[in-house]
Amino acid sequence: MTITKSFDNLSHGFKQLGKYQKALNNTKFVEYLNRKTKWNISSHDLEVVTCLVLSNRMFNGYTDGTHHVRPLYELANFIETGVINTKDGSYSTWDSDEISSNDLRDYIKYDRLHSLVFSSMDEYIDRETLVTKTLSFKSYALNIEHLIENISSTFRKLH
User: Fold this and answer.
1) Three-state secondary structure call for residue 83
2) What is the value of pTM for the model shown?
3) d(C-alpha 15, C-alpha 6), whole Å
4) Rounded distance, CA 98 to CA 96, Å?
5) Are 39 and 33 in contact (CB under 8 A)?
6) Buried b (16+ CB within 10 A) or exposed e, 24-48
């Protein structure tokens, strides 16, 4: 599958999520859903946060402003343990000892982890010479020391 086709599929997935989000913001639909599932969702304080979960990291951190992309294994680790291990120790991405809906919302909606990674990137100019011409373009590299500083100043140290 080409990257263009993958992005088209991603865009299609975002459109589908938008339909679900719109439906869940409809009080009558939530009442119908409650009757059918025997759930008790309150449409008054319902906040719908969406993401596409992919088995690879190709679009990790991408968002269209409403819907987000998260990789499967990262999301599973966040839900199961909430732990990030660095050379300086282990840190909890949860606000307390147990995961909360706010933790999950912050991870998805506010890019709680990805914003730290992206802000830890250093810009540099890459140059490639092609016969007699030089092509220059901006690129980025992860500054791991900066990332560890960001993690340690944001999350709770475990040990």
Assistant:
1) strand
2) 0.81
3) 14
4) 6
5) yes
6) beeeeebeeeeeeeeeeeeeeeeee
Residue 150 near residue 121 (C-beta atoms within 8 A): no
Can you name the residues that pair with 54 across neighbouring β-strands? Answer: 71
The label of the residue with tokens 């944001």 reads: 154
For the chain, give the number of residues: 159
Q: Which of 88, 145, 78 is nearest to 116 (CA)?
A: 145
Write the single-letter amino acid at 69: V
Task: Give how far Cα 59 sits from Cα of 26, 53, 84, 118, Å.
Answer: 30, 10, 20, 13
Residue 30 has, within 13 A of its CA and on its CB side, a CA count of 15
For residue 147, give every residue at least 6 positions away whose Cβ sits within 8 Å of its Cβ, in sequence order, or none. Answer: 116, 117, 120
Per residue in 72-126, pLDDT (tens digit) is 999 999 999 999 999 999 999 999 999 999 999 999 999 888 899 999 999 999 9
